[in-house]
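Lab notebook: predicted structure, single chain.

Context: the supervisor wants predicted structures on file for every construct in the current expression panel, including those that have not yet been purified. This is the next one on the list. No modifications to the sequence; it matches the entry in the shared construct table.
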Amino acid sequence: MWAGTELLASGKKPNTTSLEADVLAALPHFAPKAKRVVYLFMSGGPSQFETFDYKPKLYNMLGQDLPDSVRGNQRLTGMSASQSRFPIAPSLYKFNAHGQNNTMISELLPHTAKVVDELCIIKSMYTEHINHDPAITFFQTGHQLPGRPSIGSWVSYGLGSDNQNLPSFIVLVTKNGGGQPLYSRLWGNGFLPTKHQGVQFRNGKDPVLYLNNPENYDGADRREMLDYLNKLNSLQADYYGDPEVDAKLAQYEMAFRMQTSIPEVMDMSDEPDEVFELYGKDSRESGTFAANCLMARKLLEKDVKFVQLYHQDWDHHAALPNGIQSQCQKVDQGCAALITDLKRRGLLEDTLVIWGGEFGRTVYSQGKLSPENYGRDHHPRAFSMWMAGAGVKAGISYGETDDFSYNIVKDPVHVHDFQATLMHLLGIDHERFTFKTQGRRYRLTDLSGKVVKDILA
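Prediction complete. Output recorded below exactly as produced.
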């Protein structure tokens, strides 16, 4: 076994300073509740009014102006700042009580409603960022500017892998997604070693680019080639002392092992019909959100540490009723099935499931308003997301917004608070988990963030 593989197996990081080694040696800081994470990111900003934040008083306020006292001096985007009026748009869709605590869930999410007793719905999320790119970058990396490591990369760096034949951080993106673009830097490693970047599994015959052998090459001498390449690069690493050489060698070895492990995990032929029925008919079509949820379950079973699913096109500035109905139909059954499937396999108790976008939507309509049609602009000051599984209280709602879901009136949760809580569930004290680069020690939560203890089981 070559040195890079021994380092991977031991969890040690090559060529780190003694201080970095001390940081990693202390992990986890305490017993974790979660062994793995699956993060369902709804890119574009789902409307809380049509999903989880029930506001019945709005139904009698159609077309009335949002009071200035509610809006205050909060920022508006350039898309609605020039509006002369801010007419209130109640949700076109009904809410119904579900579960032991009569939690109100939109009729657009009937499958999610069936698993509501597993959910911790946070209705009081907020962020400072009002436009997509800085907002999604902030959620995924803890900072609005590109260049910081993503959450999954931090987790991979700190906790390593429980399966040496698969990456510890894997990304799945729903095919044919519209709306705001996604960038690979959202699952990038930033200033951490490159082996901790997210590996995107794509649709089609080559789920990981450049993994398969060239055409008409059987790969029989691939092991010998890698051994010689290891010797050459080891000489370079000894001479230059560059840890990225070791990281690149580790990636070569991982790619070699993935040539066997990837076809196995991508194979759905052993899944019974009742599993596809649970996830819905779309789960039989590779690359759909439902199929990716099923793939996420298979990856979690293989002890992949962090699985990230991205689903685009939640940015409904106009024609929101039709747009959000379509989006909910695409994700509702898959989300509920994933929770159900994990629970019945005994995985939910130590798997953290997360659902949410980068911000919420405004109570007022952007553009033309009618009883059947309206749009909503970005709203960062109050929105909803949910968590389920390992270490999170089940069947509760946390936080409250005002009657217009415009301001938080109880238990605000900042993005850094959410990130600190995620790390806590993995056994990490977010303030102690740092990496030094360019003369400064960085962490995921930057200079703020507190664990939301009231949602912990």
